[in-house]
């Protein structure tokens, strides 16, 4: 059965690196599966790894499933580079070139089988894939709706506003903001940041990402994505 529409690909980006994109992607995938949807995750470009994408591995652990056939065939992470840095630098250090069409075709093949493809980017929206192309250019070109992962750490309001204003300028639909509540550092700042984002962007659904605890079945409320 084919599910070929742009709407069934959700691009997941973050306001910065290490903001919780990978955990958010895995938990949203698990929640969609629990809602009866056929879902797979994909990593656009992985750096700092060899042979296997550590983010895809984390997704599967969160989902509670083994590696899929698509994982073993490389469809869920077309590019893996060894050095932990921006994709354009990682590709250059490995003596390789990123062909964005390879990523697009991998996603297209996943869309043929799955109702939802959660495509996790590398870092934030302004990360360069090469000297000419940024991640946000690719999202715009593909017309993918976006899920933006943010948090309550100091500085996140600035980074969130910059990311959302960039999406507005590029004409990218923001499907939801995912607010990662953990790890908690300053509860006062975190609570204020959450209230600010709710008040500033009432038209954008805000999904709270629960703490991932061993044995916990709590999942994010993904109704805005259905």
Automatic annotation (TrEMBL):
Its EC number is 6.3.3.3. Substrate binds at residue 47. Mg(2+) binds at residues 22, 55, 120. The active site is at residue 43. It is an enzyme of class 6 (ligase). HAMAP family: BioD. This is ATP-dependent dethiobiotin synthetase BioD. The gene is bioD.
